[in-house]
Specification:
Number of strands: 8
CATH superfamily of the largest domain: Protein of unknown function (DUF541), domain 1
Largest sheet: 5 strands, antiparallel
Number of domains: 2
Mean pLDDT: 81
Structural class: alpha+beta
Low-confidence stretches: 1-41, 221-236
């Protein structure tokens, strides 16, 4: 048994439709490569890496300090918390009044330590330690902006009841101008080094590729000494505490990379 299929002849419109489908298929096939991953462009090897000279320079500025920072404290040991706190409060109130009488403003006096600790006796032949009292500590940090009054501030505070003087540090309140001067000196130092290297290599500097800097202000503390040359305690009323402010140094270090041909 045979089957016959009859396909009618296409008219003009049908032939155009088939031609359109064929053309679209060609466009799709032609566009397939565009959808595939593209290889990255190679770096242009004809452009040479820049030639550079890297150096460091340092600038230092010596200046006289105009501010001193003090750390003064009161430590009281009593048999009860109430007594330790009360006596420490009385002593610190006198210390703060003495600092203010030396011209130190309220804003420049700040409580830095406030501490209460029990005190025990451990020499009981192996028995549990025995509570013997309480230690109350109160300390303040003070900024002295008139260095001429620094000696009086120390002497008056000690006379008023301060039991510790933990240090004196001198500094410059505003180092902006000194840093600018040190920065200029550091760049000049770096440029001189780079010029010397470039000259030795037979080239010249054409520009700057990068600059970085480090600022290092260096305060110099002094040791407090209230004794005479023989080592005995000097009377506070007749021999003022000697104060030497010395000098401070502001340092700026720069790392500079210069361009050369």
């Amino acid at each position: 048994m045979s089957t016959t299929v009859t396909i009618p002849a296409l008219g003009t419109r049908g032939r155009l439709a088939i031609a359109g489908v064929a053309t679209a298929s060609l466009f799709v096939i032609a566009g397939i490569p565009a959808l595939s991953p593209r290889s990255s462009l190679a770096v242009d090897s004809s452009t040479p890496a820049p030639h550079t000279i890297s150096v460091s320079g340092t600038g230092n500025v010596i200046l006289s300090p105009d501010v001193a920072d003090l750390q003064l404290g009161v430590t009281i040991t009593r048999s009860t918390v109430k007594a330790a706190r009360a006596d420490a409060a009385t002593a610190m109130t006198g210390v703060i009044a003495a600092l203010k009488s030396a011209g130190i403003a309220d804003k420049d006096i700040k409580t830095s330590v406030l501490n209460l600790q029990p005190q025990y006796d451990y020499s009981n032949g192996g028995n549990p330690p025995k509570l013997t009292g309480y230690v109350f500590s109160n300390a303040v940090s003070a900024t002295v902006r008139n260095l001429d009054s620094l000696g009086d501030a120390i002497d008056n505070a000690l006379a008023a009841g301060a039991t510790s003087l933990d240090g004196v540090t001198f500094r410059v309140d505003d180092e902006t101008k000194a840093e600018a001067q040190a920065r200029t000196a550091a760049m000049a130092d770096a440029k001189a080094k780079a010029d010397a290297l470039a000259s030795a290599a037979g080239v010249s500097i054409t520009g700057v590729a990068s600059i970085s800097e480090t600022v290092a202000p260096t305060p110099y503390p002094i040791q407090y000494n209230a004794t005479d040359s023989a080592g005995a305690a000097a009377p506070l009323k007749t021999v003022p505490t000697p104060i030497q402010a010395g000098t401070n140094q502001v340092s700026v270090t720069v790392a500079v990379t210069y361009l050369i041909p």
